[in-house]
């Protein structure tokens, strides 16, 4: 009789161990699933963090916490032509990128920029050697190859936004970014009716759409304007970084 109870106790103990192993494995998987890249959202020239509200709401709906989403506020709001990619405009963006890396559960970050926020974020990543920390870079309506409305450097360049550290065609800034990787995966979101990038209906520089990023993983082209590319693509943006 004693032997019978011993065997039963052994079976119960084994079952308990199996259940415990299954529980801890499930808990570990759940913890891993909840571990996400921190995200940095960089607005455009004279813009504000709230322009990314749709993206922020989508991120929160998919499980990101407020702590994991950084939205740096940079540049003058009243003088767009005064902003460039050098000095005070850089600091909030660089600080956000570094802070996001420190906060990230995975040790990697995702960066989503709109308009001039694309090139401003890209400059920090390239200049400060952060490319290996970026899992995904998404550039929305950026002028990565310059703006025809800014002229061709060094001719017809009359504002800081279009100067040496700005978005004139062939500017030293854009030359320094040309061909440089921005992350493990890189996506552009662009339009052929972008009223900012497509000056006079011309969207290309040297035959390539100006919003195209170096060695991009894929590009998504939508029939909407410069600001619709940001506000109407929140689901797409989050799909690209997941």
Please state how the strands of the largest beta sheet are arranged side by side.
2-1-3-4-7-10
- The proportion of residues in beta strands is 15-25%
Largest sheet: 6 strands, parallel
What letter string, H or E per element, gives the SSE order? HEHEHEHEEEHEEEEHH
How many runs of DSSP E, i.e. beta strands?
A: 10
Main structural class? alpha/beta
Radius of gyration: 23 Å
Number of helices: 7
- In the predicted model, the low-confidence regions spanning at least 5 consecutive residues are 19-32
The averaged pLDDT comes out at 91
Helical amount: 25-40%
Euclidean distance between termini CA atoms: 59 Å
Question: Can you tell me the overall shape?
Answer: globular
How would you explain this protein's 3D organization?
The protein is 35% helix and 17% strand. It is built from 7 helices and 10 strands. A 6-stranded parallel sheet has the order 2-1-3-4-7-10, sandwiched between helices. Strands 5-6 form a two-stranded parallel ribbon. Strands 8-9 form a two-stranded antiparallel sheet. The protein is globular, with a radius of gyration of 23 Å. Residues 19-32 have low confidence and may be disordered.
């Amino acid at each position: 009789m004693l032997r019978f109870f011993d065997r039963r106790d052994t079976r119960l103990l084994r079952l308990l161990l199996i259940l415990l192993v299954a529980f801890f494995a499930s808990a570990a998987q759940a913890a891993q699933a909840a571990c996400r890249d921190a995200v940095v959202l960089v607005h455009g020239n004279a813009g504000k963090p709230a322009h990314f509200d749709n993206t922020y709401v989508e991120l929160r709906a998919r499980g990101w916490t407020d702590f994991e989403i950084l939205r740096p506020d940079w540049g003058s709001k009243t003088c767009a032509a005064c902003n460039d990619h050098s000095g005070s405009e850089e600091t909030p963006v660089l600080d956000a990128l570094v802070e996001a890396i420190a906060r990230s559960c995975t040790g990697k970050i995702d960066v989503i920029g709109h308009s001039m926020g694309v090139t401003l974020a890209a400059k920090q990543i390239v200049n400060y050697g952060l490319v290996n920390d970026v899992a995904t870079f998404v550039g929305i309506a950026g002028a990565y190859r310059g703006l025809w409305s800014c002229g061709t450097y060094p001719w017809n360049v009359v504002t800081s936004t279009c100067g040496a550290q700005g978005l004139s065609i062939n500017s030293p800034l854009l030359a320094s970014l040309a061909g440089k990787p921005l992350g493990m995966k890189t996506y552009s979101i662009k339009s052929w009716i972008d009223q900012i990038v497509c000056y006079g209906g011309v969207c290309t520089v040297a035959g390539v759409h100006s919003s195209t990023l170096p060695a991009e993983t894929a590009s998504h082209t939508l029939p909407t304007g410069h600001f619709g590319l940001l506000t109407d693509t929140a689901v797409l943006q989050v799909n690209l970084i997941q």
